[in-house]
């Protein structure tokens, strides 16, 4: 079996040709590459809120997801809340893991690596003294985040390590978490 | 071994105010000073510094400001002269050039070990001030090797800086003053702005600090305010010793060419990274300022003075760069120095006693650490004005009274 046919037999469910085509098309049309992602969050009760994700802007026009998705966020009983959903910080951790995992799949497809299973275990450490305002020197957010991948694939450990490294390099959420972003909050 | 009843450590405004109280009460004592009188003022301030408090707030106990410029702001040199005169006037028993190495328990009193020998005493007053050390954030990586690092304790003037652009980290009183004078000297300054307190110098015809005086804020007591811990940790007001439009206002600093960035968040690969929270911090400072001014306006209405003084007004909101930069490659962009104006802390490391909290801060109740052991000159020690020149007198009186009672009980025991 030569390399060419091996690539063709790999199926991670990623349409690499479409992605590469999009990359090529967008590099000719920088305006189309400007996307704006949106979420609408509505308070339910207590710490419980529900975000709805439906429309976004990209390819020069308004776009829609196949359906409106909702994400509930709340806090667990230990925070005297009703636990109607994960905490916002757990959603952030999940976002990081999803972004890296999706990246692993796409890059594996592109590199001709068949995946059998990919699991990302994510942990974030937090000292509550920050959000509770007990100690001004403690930051509100995570003091550290760890992601541990367990990947079963038809590839050497080095190639798998390279997949994971490349997925971080091209990950939006990894960049969002590791680099600052200007955030402006207004009240209508 | 030398013996005395009370050892005061530090011959600045606090230690000398306490010396005066003890002399008046007939308490035998010594004032230990690592250098000369007002040592920190002499050696750890930048050249151009003037007090940000108007002169009517710069008097010493029994020696109110007697000059002609009550509403002016004295230079540090003038303050040092005043403290020298005050020390002579009260005949303070000062041992200068005496560095304290350790304070330990001895019997029912204390032993103070110095580089000039040991002193045994019944009580100790720590009056070394709130600004012995510069606090600075620690990041995982150091700055690139050839970038000079300074703090306001060792910065003297723009002329003493290495060539290149300057990053000033911290936008409270020290950081904004230093940033402004460096920019004015013809250098490009980038100012990293964290939480800050914006105020005008004057409001409705009076100095902002006068407003705080007449509305009772300076005299507020430590056991009467909500959330003392927060009050003690507040950043300093963006003020300098000059009248008129506040030159430290972030809008004025930007007019002078200073670039604002967010709170410094990290150093990575030779780049300084800044938080994206600058809009929020500026908005918060504007809101707090308006709340403060509203409090003054309400006071003027209540006192029936509203019509007698200038009309209320508000400053324009803090202007922000459209997209504040989030990182700077310090070497590539030609930065020569970083000045950490990120706060100060006291240094009581020579106090060999279990009196510290988990963060190494001395635990005290309005300056009383335990019977016979006192601390002075810390933020909001007993009053909001505890760290001001004229805050020393009231605190010294309160603590000397406690000390005197303690000595009496000790004799009776």
Automatic annotation (TrEMBL), chain A:
Protein name: OsmC family protein
Superkingdom of source: Bacteria
Coiled coil: none
InterPro entries: KH_dom-like_a/b, OsmC/Ohr_fam, OsmC/Ohr_hydroprdx_reductase, OsmC/Ohrsf
Matches recorded under PANTHER family: HYDROPEROXIDE REDUCTASE
Pfam family, one: OsmC
TrEMBL record, chain B:
Gene3D superfamilies found in the cross-reference section: FAD/NAD(P)-binding domain (3.50.50.60)
Keyword Oxidoreductase belongs to the record: yes
Coiled-coil segments: none
Alphabetical keyword list: Oxidoreductase
Name under which the protein is recorded: NAD(P)-binding domain-containing protein
Organism: Aliiroseovarius salicola
